[in-house]
Design goal:
The structure is a single chain. The chain is α/β, with parallel strands linked by helices. It is 54% helix and 9% strand. Strand 2, helix 2 and strand 3 form a beta-alpha-beta unit. Helix 6 crosses helix 8. 39% of the residues are buried.
Length: 330
């Protein structure tokens, strides 16, 4: 099998820019691994590539859902597996790019079957979270599912909601479902894991602030105002709880002024980046790339030159990739 490349990293690390440069050098197609870019109309606040760039380097799994239609890790796994098979059928390399690590994990390890979503329970929990605050619902989760509560941040609204929903619908904790139900088939074939991040944490913080201010200048507030005017769209939706969007929504509701909105969004984005980096450091077999250095050369070297300690199947796959790259450049 051809290798699958995971290009992971914290928000604002430059993953999209690097992916576009890689597909110009490799016989690869990009699959987005981003829980917010799946939604149509959420363009500015997600850092979605502009149409001109997408025409040059198409991204699969972007703009596939309405903001009112929740999208789960199971949905992503199903869609991503279909795209990976299609890319491989064309003799090309699937390049999965993003920062939603729950999706990467679901794709690589498989996912246990869980109870179907219950719209009524989900809406009620969302309302409680907005009124009482998600840390209060996290405390409720800790009482019924301590294992899940230790894995979920007290402000991670979407995961708290889902864990409580599973418990209310099934009477069983989410951790019990994960522990007893066999996961569907894990990803087949060799995987090359790349992690893109600046070596200096302060550089990432500067990039986060610069990026969010640029989003505001490009019309993020106007984008959220337009979404808020659509039927059925409210702050309870998973799409509207994305970092940046929920802070702008609070600003539009009059809870914060413009300056406070910016600072709260930047702080929330930094917290997200910290969680992303913690998750990345917990993985094995990851090749770290400094985004402030010659990231393209290092990424190409990681894909094309496998260490001898890797399984022979991976070395064979990378040799195949190198031969295809040579053919393309001739």
């Amino acid at each position: 099998m051809t290798p699958i490349v995971f290009l992971m990293g914290p928000t604002a690390a430059g993953k999209t820019d690097l992916a576009v440069r890689l597909v110009a050098r490799l016989p690869a197609d990009i699959v987005s691994v981003d829980s917010a870019m799946v939604y149509r109309g959420m363009d500015v606040g997600t850092g979605k590539p502009p149409p001109a760039l997408l025409a040059r380097a198409p991204h699969r799994l972007i703009d596939i859902r309405e903001v009112t239609d929740p999208y789960s890790a199971g949905d992503f796994r199903r869609d991503a597996m279909r795209e990976i098979e299609a890319i491989r059928a064309r003799g090309r390399i699937p390049l999965l790019v993003g920062g939603t690590f729950l999706y990467f994990r679901a794709l690589e390890r498989g996912i246990a079957p869980l109870p179907r979503a219950d719209p009524a329970v989900r809406t009620r929990l969302a309302g409680e979270g907005e009124r009482r605050g998600w840390p209060a619902l996290h405390a409720r989760l800790a009482a019924v599912d301590p294992l899940s509560s230790r894995r979920i941040h007290p402000n991670d609204a979407q995961r708290i909601q889902r864990a409580l929903e599973v418990f209310e619908v099934s009477g069983r904790p989410l951790s019990e479902w994960h522990g007893t139900e066999p996961a569907s088939g894990a990803l087949e074939g060799p995987v090359v894991r790349l992690a893109l991040a600046p070596a200096d944490r302060a550089e990432l913080h500067r990039a986060i602030r610069t990026r969010f201010r640029a989003m505001v200048e490009r019309g993020l507030v106007e984008e959220v105002r337009g979404l808020a005017g659509r039927p059925g769209v409210g702050p309870h939706l998973p799409s509207m709880r994305a970092v940046g969007y929920r802070q702008v929504w609070d600003h539009l509701d009059g809870r914060t002024d413009h300056a406070a909105m910016v600072e709260r969004a930047v702080a929330a984005t930094r917290q997200l980046a910290r969680r992303q980096l913690t998750w990345l450091r917990s993985l094995s077999g990851v090749r770290w790339i400094d985004s402030t250095g010659n990231a393209e050369a290092k990424a190409l070297d990681s894909v094309l030159c496998s260490p001898m300690k890797e399984p022979s199947t991976l070395r064979d796959s990378l040799q195949w990739t190198a031969s295809r790259l040579s053919e393309k450049m001739e």
